[in-house]
Amino acid sequence: MAEDLDVIIKxxxxxxxxxxxxxxxxxxEKNGFLSEDAIVKIGNxxxxxxxxxxxxxxxxxxxxxxxxxKIHLRICNGTSCFxxxxxxxIDKIREETGILxxxxxxxxxxxxxxxxCMGGCNNGPxxxxxxxxxxxxxxxxxxxxxxKLKLISGSD
Length: 156
Ligand code: FES
Fold this sequence. Notes:
Layout: H1 5-9, H2 20-31, H3 36-46, H4 50-59, E1 71-76, H5 79-83, H6 86-97, E2 110-115, E3 127-129, E4 132-134, H7 142-153
Parallel strand pairs: 1-2
Antiparallel strand pairs: 1-3, 3-4
The structure holds FE2/S2 (inorganic) cluster (FES).
């Protein structure tokens, strides 16, 4: 369940701008994404403009501005997975879902993010689907996987 923004924000000292990233991380961890409301409240608390906060947060791949989909994929693009072709897997997922990393499909069913390492480097490319790991993933496996996930999520 999402935690109250005011409760989280009050844990950080007013005007202490160096707390921005830890604060963004805590809100995302507790609430799953950074809402517009969260950005505005953080701006008021740390005396930072919302433009500055958005600019900084979008620089980091880890932050999301929309709630995750019912099915959330994490795709590793760390060095080892990259050497084993993770970029082609990411490209295929983008092609199949029609969205970019950090976005959520309009029906709210899918989202994905690109991460740097999931600890399974010898078995890459590695992806996780709602926390379940798949190893040695190839682009050829993606259309079938997405089809199965669509059935599970109830989308066409
Ligand atoms: S680099 Fe992908 S799991 Fe470590």
